[in-house]
Amino acid sequence: MVLPIVGGLFLDKIGIRSGLLLFTAILTIGQLVFTIGGYQGDYNTLLAGRVIFGMGGECMNVAQSAIVSVWFKGKELAFALGVNMSVSRLGSVINAAVIPSVYATSGLGPALMVGFMICVFSLFNAFGLVWLDKKAEDQNPRSQRAQIAAEEQFKWSDLWDFDISFWLLTGSCVLTYMSVFPYIQVASDLLQTKYQFDKIQAGYLFGVPYIISAVSSPFLGLAIDKVGKRALMICMSSFILIIAFASSMMMPECYQCYNEVYPLVFCGIGYSIYAAAIWGSIPYVVSPNAVGTAFGLATAIQNIGLVIAPTLVGMIKDNTKVVDHGYFYVNAFFIFINVVGLLLNMTLYYIDINHKDGILDKVDSASEADDTQDEIKQD
Fold first, then answer.
1. Which member of 13, 17, 119, 267 has the lowest number of beta carbons within 10 Å of its beta carbon?
2. pLDDT tens-digit profile of 10-61?
């Protein structure tokens, strides 16, 4: 909840590249401690590993986003973020498919060792990224890159300048993520208890939303850069998510049938559209020198929701098990918060069209320039 902000302030002090290496190393050490705890069967060691991992993970994301923004701001940023998200979700798909199988055949320790090796690979990539970024800085005017980097810094004073569009985006973000990620987290158990799949089969199936996100995110990001219509796409995504959770709530129980695949597909589509549109909208509703503050604050508030939501979902499930193993009312909760999110999104769309000159409808400047050049070449 606090590290997206604190990490951003810390990065301002030590530099983005140093921060990226430091936080990725902390993350890798955290996974190593977690893996040792898995081999030893020691809960306290496992917990310590997760604490260390968390100290590195969020701050690493802040550093990574800052570097992506420096490289691609005004040059198809949504596409770059989409590719980044695609690789991230691909990792989730591999995790969902591989880890249950390794755990079933070899136990907890070897399963966590797979995660540790992936973290080591990530650390090597961090060194490569830092090298590329340093090389680019040496080839460009230092003042220009420093000016761009300064726009990504978190400043408390920026909070007073955010208008209602930013807060509507942030409220919508926290509500949507409070439904999507808890649903995916409980999907494996839902597939096992309601449809009697084993743990390995459920592991393959509950990764469907991640597969859809991994495949579609770059193309959705490119489409947003070319077409715009961000607020409209955010509204559409909320509607799709409502359909996903309503269909999950109404699906009848059966033995190893694929009824739940349909809600998982709808969830993947809705989430992919939403993520591509929401993060690309924030730079348009705040001043250029407050973009870093806006991203940090939105991420922090989103994480507050991700702390609260799993607890609420667990309470609802445990207290309503007599009805559809507890998942009927869990899905009702997801539908409710997405209806509220849809109302926020519709308000955002109304304000943007009638009071903001349709700023969220606009096309990325670099993409528009590319289209103009293409038209000139054709002429």
1. 13
2. 666 677 788 888 889 999 999 999 999 999 999 999 999 999 998 887 778 7
Say what the pLDDT of residue 141 is: 55
Which tokens go with 22? Answer: 């430091």
Token code pair at residue 92: 């989730």
DSSP 70-85: HHHTTSSHHHHHHHHH
* Confidence at 372, pLDDT banded by 50, 70, 90: very low
The whole-angstrom separation of Cα 212 and Cα 180 is 13
Contact indicator for 74, 90 with CB cutoff of 8 Å: no
Look up residue 287 and give its DSSP letter.
Answer: -
User: In this structure, what token pair is assigned to residue 248?
Assistant: 């999950």
CATH superfamily of 1-154: MFS general substrate transporter like domains (1.20.1250.20)
Task: Work out the number of other CB atoms within 10 angstroms of the CB of residue 219.
Answer: 15
Quote the pTM value: 0.75
63-82 average pLDDT score: 72
Q: Taking all residues of the chain, what is their mean pLDDT, rounded to a whole number?
A: 82
- Domain 161-373 matching CATH 2.40.10.220: the answer reads no
Alpha helices per DSSP H over the chain: 3-14, 16-40, 43-72, 77-106, 108-139, 142-150, 164-193, 199-205, 208-227, 230-250, 261-285, 291-319, 327-355, 365-378
> What is the token pair recorded at 140?
């460009």
Report the amino acid identity of residue 376: I
Q: Do domains 1-154 and 161-373 have the same CATH topology?
A: yes
| DSSP reduced 3-state for 320 | coil
pLDDT at 289: 67
Task: Say how many residues make up the chain.
Answer: 379
Domain ranges of the chain: 1-154, 161-373
**What is the predicted pLDDT for the residue at 43?**
93
Phi-psi map region of 140: left, alpha, beta (phi>0 left; psi -120 to 50 alpha): beta
